[in-house]
Amino acid sequence: MKTIKYGFNVLLLSLALAFSAPVMSQEVNINTADAQTIADSINGVGLKKAQAIIDWRTEYGDFKDLASVENVKGIGPKTLAKNKDNIQF
Length: 89
What we know:
By secondary structure, the chain is mainly α. The chain contains 5 helices and 2 strands, in the order αβααααβ. The chain has helices at 2-24, 35-41, 47-60, 66-69, 77-83, and strands at 28-29, 87-88. It has a two-stranded parallel ribbon. It has a domain at 27-88: AF1531-like domain (DNA polymerase, domain 1), CATH 1.10.150.
């Protein structure tokens, strides 16, 4: 009985991970997205930082690469490293 219960728990966990992975790896064009989309797509970025990204973009123009995103206050190399595959230009 314990084996069946364990197997069922493993199955549930596998299904949960299978359906959550696509949501976590959503790509976003950081030069065109709105604040909510940026916050939803970039791990570690909430609405406040997302708005800071848009404010920087409005003032200085489009981001050219990941290094240019580091110019936004509150966005550092660790955040970008975690999200480098999700950010498009």
